[in-house]
Write a structure and sequence with these properties.
- It is built from 1 helix and 7 strands.
- The chain is of the alpha+beta class and 100 residues long.
- The chain has a single domain, classed as Immunoglobulin-like.
- A hairpin with a 2-residue loop joins strand 5 and strand 6.
- The strands form 2 sheets. Strands 2, 3, 5, 6 and 7 form a 5-stranded antiparallel β-sheet that branches. A two-stranded antiparallel sheet has the order 1-4.
């Protein structure tokens, strides 16, 4: 009986920790625009996390150039690209630090 209660308590604690770990994200959004273009859809916005550990996530813009993505905390290097157009990486220390 004691071992069953202990297992149940352990399971509940693990579920709470797991839920907390999943909810530790923040929404990053913005706009990416193509110069001299009317439509700004399908621009790939890639976020490469450099710290505390390596991670890559990406999203695509809608027709207005808007993008939104949930990211964990860390330091990211964003890259914008589109098929047929050269990739532009934000340079000169343009990194994003995301903290909760």
């Amino acid at each position: 009986m004691k071992s069953e209660k202990l297992r149940l308590i352990t399971l509940v604690v693990l579920l709470i920790l797991f839920r907390t770990a999943i909810s530790q994200t923040i929404i990053v959004d913005g706009h990416a625009f193509l110069e001299f273009q009317a439509f700004h859809d399908n621009i790939k916005v890639k976020f490469e996390r450099l710290a505390p550990s390596y991670l890559v996530d990406s999203t695509y813009t809608d027709i207005s150039g808007y993008y939104s993505v949930n990211l964990e905390s860390g330091v990211y290097k964003p890259t914008f690209s589109k098929i047929g157009i050269s990739t532009t990486t934000m340079l000169r220390r343009h990194y994003i630090k995301i903290q909760l």
